[in-house]
Each structure stands twice: as C-alpha cells, then as structure tokens.
Amino acid sequence: MKKFLSLIAVATLLMSCGSSDKRGQLVGAPGKKWYPEKPYGMTIVPGGSFIMGKADEDIAGLQNAPTKTVTVNSFYMDETEITNSEYRQFVNWVRDSTIRLRLAIMADDQGATPGDGGIGEYAFQDQEDDENITPYEQYMLDNYSGMGDDPYASRKINKERDLIWETSEYPDEFYTEVMDSMYLSVEESYNGQRTWDVDKFKFQYTWMDIGKAAKNKGAKRSDYIVREEVKVYPDTTVWIRDFNYSYNEPMHNDYFWHAAYDDYPVVGVTWKQARAFCEWRTLNHNTYRKEKGKHNVNKYRLPTEAEWEYAARGGLEAATFPWGGPYTKDDRGCFRANFKPLRGDYAADESLYTVEAKSYEPNDYDLYNMSGNVAEWVHSSYDPASYEYSSSINPNVTDDTNMKKVVRGGSWKDIAYFLQVSTRDYEYADSARSYIGFRTVQDYLGRQGDLSATPN
C-alpha cells in the first residue's frame, strides 16, 4: 500500500512539474496572440466624447437634432465611400459563387465526378470518394446534408477550378446549359449582346437579433436567428428615375461597370444591400484569415449615427462642416466639397455629378468627402425624437419595423445645409438613389488608450 501511495505522489509531482499551469496558479486559459490590425483602406477614429447635434441655428426648424454630449468607442472607418470597383468585387463574388453552385448541382444531377471531365470538374468537393475530404466535412455531409430549406447548405463547392467565360471553350452541353441560364433570354437582348440576369445575383446570410434576444431572456436562441437573401446588383435606373425630363442615359449605361468610374462612389444601393456588403466583407476577410490560422477579425458594419457624426467632425468641436466652417469655400475661393452651390450651378465645384472618392481635402481623421459627393447610409433608424431618449454612450436607435434609415453628409445634388455634419436626413431601407452610397466601420479591439495598429 505504501508503494502504491508513493507511486501516486511521484506521478502527481511529475505532473505538476511538467504542467504549464504554473503549479496550480490561476493563469488563464491559453489563446492565440492578438495584435490589432488596421484594415486596408481604413483609418482609426479614436473614441471620445463630443457634443452631438445642432451647435448653430437650426435653419430648417426641424428640431430633430438638439445638442447632447455623447461618448463613442474607438473604431476603424473607410477613408472613402465604397467605390464602384470595391462593390463590383462583391457582385462578382456573388455571381461566381452562384455559377459554381449551379455547376455543382448540375454535376450532381448527372452523377458526374472530376474524373469524368466536363461538368464533373465542377462537382461538389465533398463526394464520398474524395480522398482530400476531412473528417469534419464527412461528418457534416453525413449528418446535415439535405436538412433545412437548402439541401446543398453543407456541401462544399469547388473553387479551385477556373470558370470558363468564352462560349467557344465551354467543355460540354451541361456547362453550356448552366451558363445560359445566368443570362437574360434572347428576347430580352438587343444589339446582339446578351447580358447577365442580375436578379440571380443573390447573397444569403444569417444574423442574430441580439437586442430582441436580450429583452426576452429564456427564449430559444433559434427564435432570433434571421435569414436574409438580398439581390446585390445596384439599381442603375436610379439615374433616370431620380430626375424627370433629364438626359442621364450615359450614367445609367456606364457608371457602375465602366473602368472610367472605378474610383467613384457606388450608388443605387439600398440600405439592405449596404448591410449585405458588410456581411460579405467580413466573410471574405475571415475566410482568408482562417486559411492562415489567424484570429477572426471583428465584423464590418455600417456606422451608427453618432459614430458617423463624430468621425465627420474630425475632432473639431461645434464645427459646421468637417473642415470647420461656416463657409463652403477655402481661402483661395475654391469649394471644399462636391454639392449644389450658387443656387443650382452644379458645375461650379468642378463636377456635374459625383467625383472620385479621394477628392478634396480629408478632415483631421483622414476621411474624404464626409460632406458632399454622395450621402451615406448609417445603421440607425430615423426618429426625429431619438436624441431625447437614446443612451449617451454609443447611442444607436434601431427598429426593424421602422423602414426610415438615417442618411448623412449630403450629396452632389444637395445644397450646403445638408452638408452640415449635424444635419439629419433619411431614406427608406429598400430605396436606392443616385446620390446615396455608404462606407463601413469596424470596432477597434483593445485598450482605448493604445491605438497603435500593428499589421498582423
């Protein structure tokens, strides 16, 4: 018995000596080392307090922005509005993913596999005879395939095989059938050109309504999981519909897709599409980081109304515009933003419509066009009385039943009043305009006083 006890004591001693828990002390669970990373194209906005609302006369008499001292956390913000080129990356990703899924389904229906060539080269990668399938992927395939509304939700599409765009190089009739289904019919084409059926470019994502879940403690988590499906292609007809009896066909035809407008802000995007873009950007970034074995980054999102105004002020207290104010011209007599000056002389600021996203001088947070160019969607719902009851720390009023969403900053077609950093405006969440775009933000993770961003 003594020998047995001695063996236990020795084993215990060896375990404690070789253990990484510092001899039983509380040292915390191990985790990956974290360094804050400044996202590409973003700038840091250091958190703090400011006086939100109309610091000068409310010329319009709306009384919807009374002054109020609020505090916001630090966050990253896009230096510019999201451009056509950046949004096209999203659209192309959705298009290509849709095509790959359809090709995989067609291969599945035909019983084709990569070894068969043709459509088989685009088959799902989680086939039972796939030598590279991981145990996790096999488990998900065996246990979850075919469940829920989407029978292909747990299947892995093939992203390694390049898509073929030239019709003369299509590998077989099944590939041809899938590609043909992505275009408008011949009857809807003209001048011998067939175009994409953009109604098929849909992005699906899910999110949890944490606000509702917090108010209904004890309810099932699944009751607050929301599934969204959004058509992602911008509405280019806004250039026609927004302006009656006006010749804007060139903007309708060329603005979104032509390389000449790559660096111009995207327009014709609804609030819902802007949110979908944020979800995709998060997914796209974290997919890359997962492959590299790195931490997930915090999600990209639309700024709250308070964050937007705080960033637009650029650290200036009681300023009328991002550059201070109250004038819209600099000391050389040049306009500081792209808007509708001089009672309708659109060209007086050297532009008739929008300008490149990096035009004019940035504010003190290195943010361009926080006033003018295009107005910007923010996350908050519009309520003229919201300043009266919202919190003074990170205020944000959201209401899913309120389709009015706040837009800020004014645009190329607005007078100077709407360029003021405190002016509030709104549009309906499912509406698209030729003068409304957006930019995104990301929460800064870390100590408020340490804003050094080490590349990771």
TrEMBL record:
Q: What name has this protein been given in UniProt? A: Gliding motility lipoprotein GldK
Residues annotated as domain Sulfatase-modifying factor enzyme-like:
41-441
Q: Which gene encodes it?
A: gldK
Q: What are the alphabetically sorted keywords of the record? A: Lipoprotein
Name the Gene3D superfamilies for this protein. Answer: paralog of FGE (formylglycine-generating enzyme) (3.90.1580.10)
Tell me which species this is from: Gangjinia marincola
> What's the superkingdom here?
Bacteria
